[in-house]
Design goal:
By secondary structure, this protein is α+β, with helices and mostly antiparallel strands. It has 2 domains: about 180 residues, Alpha-Beta Complex (Sulfite Oxidase, Chain A, domain 2); about 130 residues, Sulfite Oxidase, Chain A, domain 2 (Alpha-Beta Complex), CATH 3.90.420.10. It is built from 7 helices and 20 strands. Strands 12, 13, 16, 17, 18 and 19 form a 6-stranded antiparallel beta sheet that branches. It has a 5-stranded mixed beta sheet with strand order 2-1-9-5-6. The protein has a 5-stranded mixed beta sheet with strand order 11-10-20-14-15. It is globular and about 65 Å long.
Amino acid sequence: MKLKNCILGIILYLILGTPVFPADENPLKITGCVEQPLSLTLKDMEKFEQSEIQFTDVLNNGEFRGVFACRGVSLKTLLTLSGIKKTEPDFNKPVDLAVVVKNTQKDKAILSWGEIFFKNPDRVLVVLSATPVFPHKGIDHFKDKAAYERMIQTLNRSLVFPRLVVSGDLFSDRCIESVSEIRVVDLKPKVDGQKSPSVSSEQFKIIGPGISPLVTTELPEFPGRHIRAHVVGEGRGYHGTHTFEGISLTDLLNSSKARFDINSVFMISAPDAYRSLISYGELFLNPHGNRILITDKVDEKEWKNGGRFILVLPDDLMADREVKAVSRIEIISIPE
């Protein structure tokens, strides 16, 4: 471990040199369950390879906040440089970690480790600069002159960097400015069970604020979903292309009547204590969130190899958040 930290330190020195933080510039800190805590200024981060995306900034309440061409460093790059250090010895995979991003105004955005590391890197950026994208046509081409003026005023608004941009989200509620801290959080869930080659569960329960535990032995009669997906694991590679049939996790959670919001995460676990974490944002702000399924059929056959129900995330690049033999879905609110 000390050797790994030493190597990370050498990499940081080669990339950044000796960090010097001006008195008027607050560094972005990467803390929590990491091997190498970091403090980076905008000038430091500008030395990393950057991606460019176009981002339409619209909140879930319909408020339009502009269209911008953004340049920034992927959050995956920064977290990879810091390294992950788990505090739970019984489960060494990072798929149950949360990432909490805060700004100088104490706003926060919560992501799952999986939506950062199992998606293409430019989907979650720490943006360092942005240029508004103006319409080509001028005010004379608009019937509503006042609406045009409001749009131009919005496009010309001042932005404060660094800014978190989750470009995979349809709505920008998690895209906060003046980011000051990125904290990797191990929630240390109290998940019973031990590793077993024959794990199985005939039912699962939903636990969360505002409800008594809800036990499910059959999937509710929501509109069924059929999704065909490639299954690739980090450990054993390609597992084939399969058709999964079940219901969306969003429908299931909404039907539970439990209380949850943008600061909530969802921990899905099996009797052998294997678990994965999913954020509110990737379920309810992402246009493809309803593709995350609880399934009971694979390739048109009932799933009986390792329990009746499987958590499937077909748009993850790796299938390591897949949970076979789902036995519990826990709704967790991350406090301040």
